[in-house]
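job 3f2a | input accepted
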Amino acid sequence: MKIIIKNEIRGRIRFCLQKKRYTAEEADTLQFYLQSLPGVTAVKVYERTGSAAVCYTGAREDLVRGILAFSFDKPEYRALVPEHTGRALATKYREKIIMQVVNHFACRMFVPKPVRFCRMMFRAAGFMRAGGACLRRGKLEVPVLDAAAIAVSILRGDYKTASSVMFLLKIGDTLEEWTHKKSVEDLARSMALADRKCWLVGDGDKEILVNVNDVHPGDIIAVHTGTVIPLDGKVISGEATVNQASLTGEGIPVPKNAGAYVYAGTAIEEGGLRIQVEHAKGATRYEKIIRMIEESQKLRTGVESRAESLADRLVPWSLGGTVLTWLLTGNTQKALSILMVDFSCALKLSMPVTVLSAMRECQEHQLTVKGGKYLELLAEADTIVFDKTGTLTRACPTVADVIPFGENDWDEMLRIAACLEEHFPHSIANAVVAEAARRGLGHEEMHR
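job 3f2a | predicted structure (448 res):
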C-alpha cells in the first residue's frame, strides 16, 4: 500500500493512505494495527481526513515498512480491533451536535418568523415545566435558573435571545451526556476481557488453542482451573467453582455444573468445564460491566454529595445576584447575564467524571475499584491486609534447570511438560511454556 507523508518530526510522523475518508471500522483497524507495531508509543487516526499520526521510538525505516504492509482487507488486522472502541460513540455525538447547530441556524435563516415563534414557545414550555416542578418541590435548582432566563427574554420580546439560550442549554446537555457516557465506556473498555485465546474442543475431543474471535455460537470450549471464562455459554459437562466477583461483586465462588450458565470474565477457581458458547466474543460482558459501573455510581463519595449540595446552594445566590444587578443598573440584559453565568452544572458534572477517571486510572494499574465510595474510604485507611503473597509479587518465575529422571532426554521432558502446562494460566505453568518456546521446542498435542 502506498502512503503520502504529510509532515514529520523526529519521533512523529503524519501520513495519508489512498483513501480520502475512513469508515469507523477502517479507522479502528488502522489504529489498532499501528499500535501493534514495535516501537509505536501513540496513535491518532482521523477518519474525516483519511490521515493518521504516529509517535514512535526506534528506526523510522522499520515503522514505514510496517505501515506499507498494512491492508484493510486482511482479517488478521481486523481481528486486532476490540469489540467496543468508543469511536462509534464519538461519531454519534459529534454528528448530533453538528445537526443541532445546523438546525438552529437554518431555522433562523429560512423558517418564517411565525413558525419560528411557535417552535420557540413549544421548546420553552419544556423548560418552564422543569422549573415549575422544582418550585413545587420547594427547591431552587438549576432548572429554575434556566426557566427564569428564558421567561424574562420572552416577556421582553427578545425572542432571539430566548432561542439562543435554549440552543446553548441543549448543546450543554448533549456535551454533558457525551462526557458521562465516554467516561463510563472508557472505564468499561479498560475492565473488559483482555484474553484473546481459548481452548476449542475439536474432533476426537482434542483441545485446540484458537483466537477468541474464531469461536462461534454453538462451539464447545474447555476452561480449566485458574482460567478466566472467555465467552458466555452453558455448561455441558464438568464441575467447577466460579468466582463471579468481576460482574456481581460476590466474594464467594459459585458452584457450576452441567446445565448452569456462565459468563465471560468470571474465573474458575477449582475444577474444569466444557462450555457450549452462546454469545461469541463475550457479547454480553461489556453490557454487564456498563451496568455494574452505573450501579457503582450510586455508591456516591462524600465529595460528590458535597459538590451537588454546593451546586444547589449556588442557585439562590444566582437569583439574588440577578435581582441585585437589575436594582443597581436597571438593565435587564445585564441582569439576565447573571442567570447565564451558573457554575452549578459544572460542579455536578465534574465530580462524577473525576471519580470515573480515577477508577479508570486504577484499572490501568490492574486495580479494580467498584465505586467512588471505596476510593474515598481508601484515603482514610491506615492498615491494609493482603490475603496472600501472590497479591504483592510480580509472579514471573523462570525455569532454572530441568532434571530428567532415568534415561529420559532433557529436551523431551521439557517438551512434554510444556504440552501439559500450556492448558493452565498459573505463573509456574507459564514459565515452563516460555522456556520451551525460548529453546525452540515445539509441542503439538502429545496427550489424550
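job 3f2a | The CA atoms of residues 300 and 357 lie 14 Å apart.
job 3f2a | closed
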